[in-house]
Here is the input.
Amino acid sequence: MKILVTGGTGFVGSAVVRRLLHAGHVVRVLVRLDSNWQNLSGLDVELAIGDLGDPPTLAVACDGCEGMFHVAADYRLWTRNGAKMIDDNVGGVRNIMEAALSAGISRIVYTSSVATLGIRADGVPGDEDTPVCFEDMIGFYKQSKFRAEEAVNELIAQRSAPVVIVNPSTPIGPRDIKPTPTGRMVVRAAAGKMPAFVDTGLNVVHVDDVAAGHLLAFEHGKVGERYILGGENLSLREILTGITKIAGISPPRFKLPHGAVMPIAYLAQAWAQMTDGKEPFATVDGIRMSRKHMFFANDKAKRDLGYRWRPAHEALADAVEWYRTNGYLK
Here is the structure.
C-alpha cells in the first residue's frame, strides 16, 4: 500500500516511516524544502515537497495514496508567537485532512498527544476517557493539540473521515535530531547539567514502540477512537537517575520546590525573548505542568490493538547512546 507520512523528517515521524518500510509499504513523505532531511538518509521513500499551510501542494502529496499518517506538529513548550503555533497546528490538520478526503484516502492515523487528555487528581493514571476541557490545557502547545484533535473529531462526525487517533506519551530514543523538549532534558541530564529536580512524573516510552503502535492503530484501530501509546510511569527523579547511571555520572541530589524554579523560568524566557528566540532550558508552562504527575494507562491499546512496550530503561539507554554517538554530549 502507498502511504503518505507528514512529519517524516522528525523524531516520531521518522520512526513511523521506518516501521512502515519494514512492513513492506511504499512510503511517500511530505517534506519542506527547509527541513532537515537527515532522518530520511538511506531510506527508500518518495519525497513530496510541500507545506501544511499550502493546500495545493498537499493535494499533490495525497494523490495516489491509500493511507496516511499525519504526524507533523510544531512541538515546543515556548514560542514568541503562541497564536501562530495554534494556527499552524490546527490549520495544518484541517488542510491535510481535507486534501486526504478529496484524494479518497481510505485510512488515516492522526498523531495527537497525551497533552490533550485529562490528569486525575488522585494520582491514578489517566486514560482515554478521563474528563478534560480546554481550560485544563496549559500553554500554547497543549491548547493547539486540543483544538487540532477537536477539528479531527468534527471531520469524523460530519464527513465520516476514516481517522484513528493515537496519543503518544513521552517518546524517547534515537534520531531526536532537533532535539524535542524531552530530548533536551535527556541531553542535559546525560551531560551532568541537571543537578536538581522537581516533584513530577512522566510516562516514558521508546519512540520505536510508539511507531509500532501507529501501525497497529492503522491495521486494527476503530475509526473515531483514540489510543494511548505509552510505556512506564516514572518520577522525574527516577528518569534522571536512570539517565545519569547510563551516562556514568552522579545522579541529581537536590529536590527543588516548584516555586523556587519558577523565577528561573521567567528569567530564561525573558532572555530568550530579548536574544535569539530559541526555546529556553526552563519555561513557565513547563514548570506549571510539572506540578502534576503526567501518568497514563495503556490498557486500551494493549487490549484492542495488541500494543506492547519495552522497559523505559531501554528507551533512555538508546537515547543516550545516540546523543553520545552524534556529538550532543560534548
In short: The mean pLDDT is 92.
